[in-house]
Write a structure and sequence with these properties.
The chain is built from 15 helices and 21 strands. By secondary structure, the protein is α/β, with parallel strands linked by helices. Helix 1 crosses helix 4, helix 3 runs antiparallel to helix 5 and helix 5 runs parallel beside helix 6. It binds NADPH dihydro-nicotinamide-adenine-dinucleotide phosphate.
Length: about 525
C-alpha cells in the first residue's frame, strides 16, 4: 500500500480576497516580462529551438505569447525511438518511485501556480478563476494517478486453491502518444501524460498549436520532478505532427482529447497495422459533445437559470462539458426563456485578465468565424432572445447569444459549436426531452433540473451521457469526485480522474505456478 496521505483536491484560490488578487496581478506582471516564451522540440536530452509556430493572445492577437519550433517528420520518429529506449528504464523503476516523480512535479506546479495561471490567461484567454482551476486540476491528476498506480501495481486478489499460486499484475503497454487540445491547456495534457507515466509507459506529447507555452510548463514540471527526458518528449506542431505521431508503428497507446472528427480519424489510423508491427494500438479518446440541460415543469428556476447560464457561457462556452441546448417543458418555457435572456443580457464580455469578465474572447479567428456562422443560421431560422453586442473591438470576441424556436434539423441544435451560443427548445415533457437526447450522436455531459425524485430516476435510466448533473451546473468535474468522459461519439468512456482510467494504459499478465513439490532439489 502507498505511504502517501489520502488524495484531496487542490484548493482553488480565494479570489474574493484582495491580497490574493494582488498576488495574481504581481504574477501577471512577472510573467509578462518573460514573454514570449521559447518552446523547443524536446527529445530526450536534446532541444531544438525554432520560431515557426506562434501562439498569440486571443484578446490581443498582435501579442505573441510563445514562439515554438515545429516538429518535423524525422523528429516524430526520433521521439518515438527515444521513448522506446526510455520505456525500458522507466518501466523498471518501482511504482512508488515513479509516483514520487509525479508528486514532485505536482509540487513544482504548486510553487509556480500563479505564474502558470497567468500564462493560461494570456495564451488561451482563460479568465482567472478558470486558469487557477486548470492548474489545480493538473496538480490533482498528478497526485491522484500517482496513488492509483501504486494501488494498481499490487494487482487484484484472485482465487487461490491448494497446490497453485495465481498472480495478476498490470504492466505498461509501451510508448504512449498524447495528443491534446488547448481549452484546458495544462490539465488535459497533464492528465493523459501523468496516467501514462505513472503506470510505467514513456510519453511523446503533441500539444495543441494554440498552447505550446502551457505544454512547456508541464514538461518542465515532470522533468524537474525526476521523470527522465527519455520518458517524456515534446513535439510542438500542428495537426500533421499529431497525425504522423499516431501513425507511427512504435506507438502502443494513443491518448487523445479533442474534436470528434479528429478522434474518428485517429481511430481509423490506429487500426492500420504497419509491416513488422506486432501490437494493436489502443485508443483512449475524449471527444466533443452537444450537451443538453433538461428543465422540467417543477424545476426551481432560481437554481436552473444561473446553472444554465454559467454552464453555457463561462470560458465563452469553450468547454467540452458546456451546455449547448436547453430542453424546457413547454409549461414554463416562456418564463425560463425570459429569465435566461435577462441573465445573459447583463454578462460582461471582456479581457480574461479582468476579474469582472464573464465571457472572454474565443481562442482564434477561425473559432470566431465558426461561432458567427452558427449565430447567423440561428438568426435566419429561429429567434434570437438575447445577445450582448457590447464586446471589445480588438480580439476574437463573440457576442454571447441565446436562440429559440429553431427547426429540429438545424445545425445549431445538432452540431458542436464550441462557443457562446445557447439554443433553447420547448419539449412536451421529460420523455420527449429524453427522446431528443437519445437521438444525438454525442453523449458527453447532460443536466436535469427537476424536483420529483421519480423524474430524476427516469432521466438517469434513459440518459446515455457520461456525466449527468442534477440540479446544478454541468461543468467543473473534479478529479476523484466526478470521473469524467463521454460515450457514443463523445469518446471511449475512459473516465479521466476516476478509478478506471489507469487501466487504459496497462496490459494484464497472469502467472499461475504449480506449488506442489515433487521432491526437493538440494
Ligand atoms: P482538435 O480536434 O482540433 O485538436 C486536438 C489535437 O489534435 C490538437 O493537438 C491538434 O493539433 C491535433 N490534431 C489535429 N488534427 C489531427 C490529426 N489528423 N491527427 C492527430 N492529431 C491531430 O480539438 P481542439 O484542440 O480544437 O479542442 C476542442 C475540441 O476538444 C472540442 O471538440 C472539445 O469538445 C474537445 N474536448 C473534449 C474533452 C473531453 O474530455 N471529452 C475535453 C476538452 C476538449 P492542432 O492544434 O495543431 O490542430
Amino acid at each position: 500500500m502507498s505511504s502517501l496521505p489520502p488524495f484531496a483536491n487542490e484548493p482553488v484560490l480565494e479570489l474574493r480576497r484582495a491580497p490574493v488578487r494582488a498576488q495574481l496581478q504581481d504574477a501577471h506582471g512577472r510573467l509578462s516580462r518573460t514573454l514570449p516564451l521559447h518552446v523547443p522540440v524536446m527529445i530526450g536530452a536534446g532541444e531544438r529551438i525554432g520560431e515557426q509556430l506562434h501562439s498569440t493572445d486571443p484578446g490581443d492577437p498582435d501579442n505573441v505569447v510563445a514562439v515554438a519550433a515545429l516538429a518535423t517528420d524525422s523528429e516524430v520518429s526520433a521521439a518515438v525511438e527515444e521513448a522506446e529506449r526510455g520505456f525500458r528504464s522507466w518501466r523498471a523503476r518501482s511504482a512508488e518511485d515513479r509516483a514520487g516523480a509525479l508528486i514532485r512535479a505536482a509540487a513544482w506546479l504548486r510553487e509556480r501556480r500563479l505564474e502558470i495561471a497567468a500564462l493560461e490567461v494570456r495564451e488561451c484567454a482563460k479568465p482567472w478563476p478558470e486558469a487557477d482551476a486548470d492548474v489545480c486540476e493538473a496538480i490533482d491528476f498528478l497526485e491522484y494517478y500517482a496513488r492509483g498506480a501504486i494501488e494498481l501495481d499490487a494487482g487484484p486478489p484472485l482465487l487461490q486453491v491448494p497446490g497453485e499460486r495465481n498472480d495478476m499484475r498490470y504492466g505498461p503497454r509501451g510508448v504512449v502518444a498524447v495528443v491534446a487540445p488547448w481549452n484546458f491547456p495544462l490539465a488535459i495534457p497533464c492528465g493523459m501524460t501523468s496516467a501514462a507515466l505513472a503506470t510505467g509507459n514513456a510519453v511523446v506529447l503533441k500539444p495543441a498549436e494554440q498552447s505550446p507555452g502551457c505544454a512547456l510548463m508541464l514538461i518542465q514540471a515532470l522533468r524537474a520532478g525526476g521523470v527522465p527526458g527519455s520518458a517524456i518528449s515534446l513535439l510542438p506542431g500542428e495537426g500533421d505532427v499529431g497525425a504522423a505521431l499516431v501513425a507511427h508503428p512504435g506507438v502502443h497507446t494513443i491518448a487523445f482529447t479533442g474534436s470528434m472528427p479528429v478522434g474518428v480519424a485517429i481511430a481509423r489510423a490506429a487500426a492500420e497495422i504497419a509491416p513488422g508491427q506486432r501490437h494493436l494500438k489502443r485508443v483512449v479518446s475524449e471527444l466533443g459533445g452537444k450537451n443538453c440541460v433538461i428543465v422540467d415543469s417543477d424545476a426551481d428556476l432560481d437554481e436552473a437559470v444561473p446553472g444554465i447560464v454559467s454552464s453555457a457561457f463561462v470560458y465563452a462556452g469553450q468547454k467540452c462539458s458546456a451546455a449547448a441546448r436547453v430542453l424546457v417543458h413547454e409549461a414554463i418555457a416562456d418564463q425560463l426563456i425570459e429569465r435566461v435572456a435577462g441573465a445573459v443580457s447583463v454578462l460582461v464580455v471582456g479581457q480574461a485578465d479582468q476579474l469582472g469578465t464573464d465571457v472572454p474572447p474565443v481562442i482564434e479567428q477561425s473559432a470566431k468565424e465558426r461561432v458567427d456562422r452558427y449565430a447567423a443560421i440561428a438568426r435566419e431560422s429561429g429567434r434570437i432572445v438575447a445577445r450582448v453586442d457590447d464586446v471589445p473591438a480588438n480580439g476574437w470576441f463573440c457576442p454571447p447569444t441565446v436562440a429559440a424556436d429553431l427547426p429540429p434539423d438545424s445545425p445549431v441544435l445538432n452540431e458542436e459549436i464550441f462557443g457562446p451560443l445557447l439554443a433553447i427548445d420547448r419539449v412536451k415533457n421529460v420523455e420527449h426531452a429524453c427522446d431528443i437526447v437519445d437521438a444525438l450522436p454525442f453523449a458527453l455531459t447532460g443536466g436535469l433540473f427537476a424536483r420529483d425524485p421519480a423524474t430524476v430516476r427516469y432521466v438517469r435510466e434513459r440518459s446515455p451521457v457520461g456525466n449527468l448533473y442534477v440540479n446544478r451546473g454541468i461543468t467543473g468535474a473534479m478529479v476523484g469526485r466526478q470521473p469524467f468522459g463521454g460515450n457514443r461519439l463523445s469518446g471511449t468512456g475512459a473516465k479521466a480522474g476516476g478509478p478506471d482510467y489507469l487501466r487504459q494504459f496497462v496490459e494484464p499478465h497472469v502467472v499461475t505456478e504449480n506449488t506442489m513439490r515433487h521432491g526437493l532439489v538440494v
